Amino acid sequence: MMNNERHISIKIENLSVRRGGVQILDNVNASIMCNEITAIIGPNGAGKTTLLLAIMDLIPYTGTISFCKECSHGNSRPKIGYVPQRLDVDRGMPITVLEFLSLRDQKLPLWLGKSKKVRENIITSLERVSASHLINRPLGKLSGGELQRVLLAMALQNEPDIVLLDEPVAGIDVAGEELFTEILSNLQKSSKFTLVLISHDLSVVTKYANHVICMNKTVKCEGRTVEVLTPENLTAIYGINVGLYEHKPDKCIIEGE
Amino acid sequence: MDFELIYNVIGQILPFTWLEPTFMKRALLALLVISPICAMMGVLMVNFRMSFFSDAISHSAFTGIALGVLFNVNPYLTMILFGAIVGIGITRAKRGTELSIDAVIGVFFSAAVALGIAIVSAKKGLTRNLQSFLYGDILAISDSEILWFIGFFILIVLFMIYSYNKLMLMGINDNVAKVSGIAVQNYEYFFAILLALTITFSIRAIGILLVTAMLIVPASAGRNFARSAIEMFWYSIIISIFSAIVGLALSYYFDSATGATIILIAVACFILTHIAKMIRERL
Q: Which residues of A sit within 8 Å Cβ distance of B?
């Protein structure tokens, strides 16, 4: 694609959120770029999840969040896919991955059976995230990494314009994390959507994100990944002495065998 | 509407001693309608850990009845209204405060029951009819009540057809549900109202003390053995109907409270399905 112009997908202006007497977000100004991978980093309690909730219009806020038509296939409100950090499912809950993914799109209630067409679409969604073998597994019995891939498949089901991920690799082992982020990155490139991910994992951020927003109740720094992730900026947001150590690329991946 | 024909058919198909009296046939018919309703609502409640919520509504039914008798209004009406108010109140309060759901329900539960006891103790003579509400009185059910049950059954089935998928998604992650365009809050309120209705109808069969059990136990037994949501749904219905029929029959022979006997059979099913699951896992 020869188009090198960067459009804004989401423009956040003067966003503030106050809940239970606490100022969670204070005058946040940021731009999420179209069809790029933007990472939001910051310490716990920085309001990162709250920012996603505000983008999805799930909590009250002051300020403006505007979506650009060019980046949402002409719709004023883009289609958003959301991958939450966790589900409210206990280990014993009998619902299979196939059933879970049918909940949104199938008109027929689950207890009357599964629609063949929906099943085929789900198999395709799962193949894209390398999870088709999990189709009949109960949701509660999936590992952390498997669940995240299934949740990603769900978020991608309706061909979203924007995908929001909340700490997708928290609680997953290193190999799972690599697999997930690689799948995610490939899908983003092929399907072309705006990806916003909250991450604590700076190695993931440096490897995949084009754009970084550092937050702690407000935006502390924003820009291209390499420019933003300087020791000074990182120390300013995390409050401890943080820097990035760059390994030589082929020494950084731990081989499984 | 004349149920004579139906009772004759039942008498032909199931010529058992315990079904000979017409009141037993009526009870069977009523239970055949109410037990799948309890199973279906129970499936949602067990999956989303709402048994305390159900308990609060069922105990507030006691107060609803007291209010009805106090104000000389049909106690069934006040029972439904008060139950719905408590259910909606809890759902609303859950969103508005930072208290845990346990604490919110506990407060409503306590307020409702305390109010009921205060009314009953202040106005002498109200306790006369309470026993049938506490233990259930399915053997005294009338044909017109059965018609109400059938009407409600149709409503619940329609609700399950239209809302089951959405409710499941809401229970698993409500933000994902909201982003998918589901009006989560409306469904929560509507579910609370339907639950209040279910409990009101079920109190006739099972009584206030055990109505939560009728909702929870067959669904939990179904959950034990099910390996998918579809299986859980249908196993729960089968176990609920089975418990109701066997419980009714046994209560005839043992002269025990029908409601309690049904629950004991349901618990036996729970134990059996649990054992069956453990055996299946060993194989």
A: 20, 53, 56, 58, 80-82, 84, 87-89, 92-96, 99-100, 102-104, 106, 109-114, 136, 138-139, 154
